[in-house]
Amino acid sequence: MALTNTNKPAPPEHIAIIMDGNGRWAKQRGLPRTAGHSAGAETLRRIAKHCNTLGVKYLTVYAFSTENWKRSQEEVSGIMKLLRRYLEESLRDMEKNQVRIRFFGDLTRLSPELQQLCRETEARSQDYKVQMNFCINYGGRDEMVHAARAFAADVAAGMRKPEELTEDLLATYLYSADVPDPELIIRPSGEQRTSNFLLWQSAYSEYVFMNVLWPDFSPEDLDRAIEEYHRRNRRFGGT
Ligand code: FPP
Q1: Which end of the chain is more exposed for a tag (fewer CB within 10 A), N or C?
Q2: Ligand 1 centroid to residue 123 C-alpha, Å
Q3: β-sheet bridge partners, residue 133
Q4: pLDDT at position 2, please?
Q5: Which protein residue's CA is at the shortest distance from atom 8 of ligand 1?
Q6: Per-residue pLDDT tens digits for 9-56
Q7: Is residue 170 part of a domain?
Q8: Ligand 1-lining residues (CB < 6 angstroms)
């Protein structure tokens, strides 16, 4: 096991988080659900900073799923507003933070302004080494359909042959192309489901489920999840 210079085991290179429990957090306080998401966005800032301090190279967060459009118009536009604010702040502080931002998901359903902001953030941050991936209008099944269509289009255009398709080649058509699979996936809030998150990439991930709502999730909770991950014995199907 690789050790850091403090003799602690090195953290996972890639951590993914399902930021769950914002609604319940707000309800417990008699606040609108959007207040929960707003607190969740602040938690994200703290946790992203802590990941950076620990030396985690990739952080992927589930911010909006393909199913989340079923929520009220008020809640959907509240989350989009938070995303816009988060990206504007990231652009402003980009040189200080040095974090590359990417998006996993079908952005074409977002407003043209937000799509433009996403593209600008990706382009301006592309040379930084530490990376944060926002899953927006993301679904694991949708990602596979999108990849299958893109491959089929390349076959139809004569650029690929069906028999060329391997697991490695298919992975290059996913939103997560070039990003290693997450070693650790954390889901707070007490729910124990994958909810269509990183279905392909999670084949060998360790899941840690925690009984804390996302707005209350602290850097110490992240440390605990990483400790739990180090206690697991990853065998990748071997003995
Ligand atoms: C799930 O909790 C959370 C979401 C669907 C939205 C996540 C969004 C944020 C954390 C806001 C920050 C986002 C950005 C892009 C900066 P839930 O609402 O389903 O909680 P519940 O299960 O308690 O109702």
Answers
A1: C
A2: 26
A3: 60, 102
A4: 60
A5: 63
A6: 899 999 999 999 999 999 999 999 999 999 999 999 999 999 999 999
A7: no
A8: 19-24, 37, 40-41, 44, 63, 68, 79, 82-83, 86, 134
In-domain check, residue 239: no
Count of domains for the chain: 1
Closest atom of ligand 1 to 33 CA is 18
Ligand 1, from 19, 61, 67: best to mutate by most atoms within 8 Å of Cβ? Answer: 19
Q: Is 177 a domain residue?
A: no
Please say whether the beta carbons of 200 and 140 come within 8 A.
yes
The model's pLDDT over 176-200, given as tens digits with 9 standing for 90+, comes to 999 999 999 999 999 999 999 999 9
Q: How far is the CA of 238 from the centre of ligand 1 (A)?
A: 37
- Residues comprising the chain, all counted: 239
77 in a domain, yes or no?
A: yes
Per-residue confidence band for 5, with pLDDT thresholds at 50, 70 and 90: low
Residue 26 CA: nearest ligand 1 atom is 23
Give the active site residues: 20, 68
What tokens does 164 get?
A: 């060329």
Query: 86 is in which domain, residue-wise?
Result: 14-139+182-231
Compute the distance from residue 37 Cα to the ligand 1 centre, in Å.
5
CATH number at residue 92: 3.40.1180.10
State residue 238's pLDDT score: 78
Q: What is the pLDDT of residue 136?
A: 98
pTM of the predicted model as reported, rounded to 2 decimal places: 0.95
pLDDT over 70 percentage in the chain: 96
